[in-house]
Amino acid sequence: MSERIVVVGGGLGGVRSAERLREMGFDGQITILSAERHLPYHRPCLSKQIITGEWHPDDALLSFSGDLDAEWRLNSPALHLDPKTQSVWVPGGEEIKYDGMIIATGVDARAMGGAPRHDPRVHVLRTLDDAVAIRKNIRQSQGLVAVIGGGFIGCELACSVRHMGRDVALIVRSPALLGGVVGDDIGKKITEAHVEHGVRLATGVGIKHWVRQPGGIGIHLSDGQVFFASCVVLAVGASPAVDWLRGSGLVIEDGVLCDATNHVVGAENIVACGDVARWPNLRFNGAVRRVEHWLNAVEGGRAAAENLLVGRSHAKPYTPVPRFWTEQYGMRVQGAGLPVLGTDTTDVNGLTGFIADGKLVGIVGLESPGKIITETPELFRQNTVDANRPVWTQPAEEETKVASTPEVLPTTQIPVPEPVAARASSVPPSVSSSMSPPLQRRRHSRSRPEMVRVGGGRARP
């Protein structure tokens, strides 16, 4: 009987990890469990081309290897995991056994206390269906569109709504857009661009209460302002999709706790990747954290697959320099590293450099792709990885919010046909080729899945 690896999560991290399994010569069964009814798609376009209608939903579908040969289980979210028996359950009471597992469930849109989420005019944006519903609501209504939250998603949404010619209000709890993530100077320029393009901006405010009426929803703010909106989008962050892991014995506070090689702490033959994984990046002080960036799902998915196959004893630490981007009103903001660690800023060849403990830990630039490419290697140079450092040490309690670490079980190596080209990601082949997905309109070519099952029902080719 052949080995089976179950990938839980049918998004970017899941499909890229499955591809890497095949690239490394794994010839067993790959089963991909997806909570969604769609095959994998690009999420960055949801707040842009899908909302505006520039792209049809099919345009967002991801390309993936024609040699994947995986069993896709759409509309089949994982419901429960038992690491001891190496079993996962899906709707209908079906138990699926695995020899290895890759957790790539990503994040869910964060709930907002007091918001009338049951009202069809109130939305979140996480999935393709969410984006389609928001676009439909905007097109079928008149009046103000209110976006709650001033992070990347909230700002991109406001930009898209203005592109559609609709009135939009951006309601933000923090005093500045993007929460200081990109630095004060760039944050100020982004804020000014929104105001110049007619966005009604309310910063440094909270929402006192909501009033639902037939013609719209009244939003009463803490500073006395009242907005009356026909469509509301809550963009207040995301939470790791870990509810299905409750009762499994794994540590799931703010994501799935992993060691530096992506192996899940306290489990055997399980790795995690992408937004849901919380691991110590030994390149950046080893503090345990999650990284919610597009490229981390790609690189992390590939590294997790590699380390699963070679086994914990032969695995290599996953030590990326994260990269991210956003585009608003034709202005492109790009960043690398972990600016959130910075305690001070400095100028780096015209970029905003973030400094911590005397080292450059992040850079952000506005309309400076060439400089980002030039300066990113400096982040690798200044943030080296100690090859002798153990892949797991109990971090300080304030960093992990975990009182103790579960026992790390010995991980057996899953047989892989020779040769095995194991190479956990540390330095990307080229910075320029790994910044972000192309945004030009195109219909993505993609392989045809060998088997797709919807909701655990009969397979269809």
Layout: helices, strands, pairs:
Elements: E1 4-8, H1 12-23, E2 29-33, H2 49-52, E3 71-74, E4 80-82, E5 87-90, E6 94-97, E7 100-103, E8 107-109, E9 122-124, H3 128-139, E10 144-148, H4 152-163, E11 168-171, H5 184-196, E12 200-202, E13 207-213, E14 216-221, E15 226-234, E16 238-240, E17 256-257, E18 270-272, E19 277-280, E20 288-289, H6 294-310, E21 323-328, E22 331-337, E23 344-348, E24 351-356, E25 359-366, H7 369-382, H8 397-400, E26 451-454
Parallel strand pairs: 1-2, 1-7, 2-3, 3-26, 7-18, 9-15, 10-11, 10-15, 11-12, 17-19
Antiparallel strand pairs: 4-5, 5-6, 8-16, 13-14, 14-15, 19-20, 21-22, 22-25, 23-24, 24-25
Provide a descriptive summary of the structure in words.
Strand 19 (277-280) and strand 20 (288-289) form a beta hairpin. Strands 9, 10, 11, 12, 13, 14 and 15 form a seven-stranded mixed sheet that branches. The chain has a six-stranded parallel sheet with strand order 18-7-1-2-3-26, with helices on one face. Mean pLDDT is 87; it is low at 396-412, 417-448 and 456-461. Helix 1 runs parallel beside helix 6 (294-310). 47% of the residues are buried. The chain has helices spanning 12-23, 49-52, 128-139, 152-163, 184-196, 294-310, 369-382, 397-400, and strands spanning 4-8, 29-33, 71-74, 80-82, 87-90, 94-97, 100-103, 107-109, 122-124, 144-148, 168-171, 200-202, 207-213, 216-221, 226-234, 238-240, 256-257, 270-272, 277-280, 288-289, 323-328, 331-337, 344-348, 351-356, 359-366, 451-454. It folds into three domains: 4-109 and 239-321, FAD/NAD(P)-binding domain; 122-236, 3-Layer(bba) Sandwich (FAD/NAD(P)-binding domain); 330-383, no CATH class. The protein is α/β, with parallel strands linked by helices and 461 residues long.
